[in-house]
């Protein structure tokens, strides 16, 4: 699927504006009705949508199937946890450290992974993710397998304290909007078309003289940075940093969010994060066999919405067809 073109009267733009307006009004609605739990759930959805947006850059626009992107989410969370453990609550400094660390890890991981293709790329990213997962488990000083409680949330200067649910929600919403805009700009740039060209026909792009490794590595690093920012926010939401944040299961959830929502679409990751996490919360309260029901719903979505849910909403006539 080629990057979306922006037509202000199109169905997808109208849907996006409606969703944006609902998200802006959500804290007021939940506060008025005394439904604080749903505000926390919405914040969690936004944070995972940020991470899924990062993954969508390499998966949806670059064709790189990564099963290790939760690694960068976990790095961001552990930076906040370890910094708080040592009495450092400066959120800007934590964010800077998280971005630097994620970049330093993403470059060698990307260099090694991108020298392979298809299943090789998937397995190497999975291996790196599990390597850091077991590293987190081995950090006994910082909780080991039990995880690390965070007793002091990040302080972000003029921004209100992240202890408040509303302030953290709006911060996550702002970061998500910026990430989505960045992905949209990348997708519509010369760089984005080259990246998409490698997904469509790598041999032709190489013949034209474009360096594959340079373009794909840049996308891989940018996506890792987005995931690290999501990890910083997730740690402040849960006030906890756990090895499970880095596990392959978490990477698989991010992958599902992108695929279900709609690969190569700006709104797809948010749609997928909402559907997966909202259904998980609703079904788990109804039956202990909720995972089987969720799996069936995911199967139906894959069968009848090949473009993803966002693609089905934006292009209902083509919901069940493959891209041209």
TrEMBL record:
Subcellular location: Cell membrane
Sorted UniProt keywords: Cell membrane, Membrane, Transmembrane, Transmembrane helix
UniProt keyword annotation of Cell inner membrane present: no
Annotated transmembrane regions: 12-29, 35-59, 66-86, 92-112, 119-139, 168-187, 213-234, 254-278, 290-310
CDD domains, alphabetized: TM_PBP1_LivM_like
InterPro entries (alphabetical): ABC_transp_permease (IPR001851), LivM-like (IPR043428)
The protein's name in its UniProt record: Branched-chain amino acid ABC transporter permease
